[in-house]
Write a structure and sequence with these properties.
The protein is of the alpha/beta class and 343 residues long. It folds into 2 domains: 2-126, no CATH class; 134-342, P-loop containing nucleotide triphosphate hydrolases (Rossmann fold). The protein has 14 helices and 5 strands. Strands 2-3-1-4-5 form a 5-stranded parallel sheet, with helices on both faces. Helix 2 (21-44) crosses helix 3, helix 3 packs antiparallel against helix 5 (89-126) and helix 7 (163-176) packs across helix 9. The longest helix has 38 residues, at 89-126.
Amino acid sequence: MTRLSAALGDVLEIAIGTMSAWELAAAPILLAGLVLAGVWAARRDFRSYVQLLRRGFAGALLLVGSGAVVVGWFVCFDTATITGTETTPAAQTSWILSMALFSAGVSLLSGVAAYALGGWLSGAVNNDGRYNLIIAIDGPAASGKGTLAKRIAAHFGYAWLDTGLLYRAVARDVLATGGRLDDVEAATRAARAIDAASLADPALRGPRAGDAASIVAKIPEVRAALLAYQRAFARQPGGAVLDGRDIGTVVCPDADVKIFVTASDEARARRRFLEHQSRGENISYEELLADIRTRDARDQSRAIAPLEAAGDALYLDTTNLDADEAFEAAMEMIAKRTKCRET
């Protein structure tokens, strides 16, 4: 290792000694440029910024790792080539190429770090010292909050949680064990044992699952058991978007942005009707309208965490908006609210 350190020191001394002032200044100038590029990219499209950052980091690790393997081989088995005391043209070429590969990886890793620093600075400035936003999306069934929350999360590169699925999963697990939905002990036990991986179950999206969820959601012990899970999700690194019925009022009362999404009963029933039709399910519009009104009454009248907008929530009526228009309106609200936090 002493010989390797001496050899690397000699190479570095020769390289620096032969470089002009402009060449020496090129590296810090390039790194500064990458910091500014990171600031711009994070503000323009955070999701694309994160994807590029991940790819750059993976590429840098690949180069550094590949170069390190070859360099390590020379250190262990051919130190004569490193010191130049006894070598062959082929061995010397392999040593130079391995060092070039390792150096390229280190350079790329430095660039990625500078790019990441730019994104961090952008977030620190835009979010009043906080890089990760918590965005709470609340609203009644079929108002479009789930679709909207998922799209917002994808845009920013944030994690997304449909909290309604938690209650649906609890109801599913209670029924799977032969229990009753109003059995407090069984429902609480299921809530404490919730498995995040099971939330991808397509059966949770059905109308019966939603109706069952509104029953277990009335149980205070169930809500208490799931509250810690939701708050931990919201605090995870990278930002989070949560949608449900009590995110802005109970789960994340300190969320950076709160949006309450609503729509007329008829518009929501029509959306559900079209969804069921697209899946080939035979259910009438009148039945869906009655179900939505029943669920609204149950959610609004429950004693614990009733469906209601937070005092500082921004209202978004999607009755006459399609998915794109609702997304644009929500993005304007988010931009306005985060800008207000800056001033």
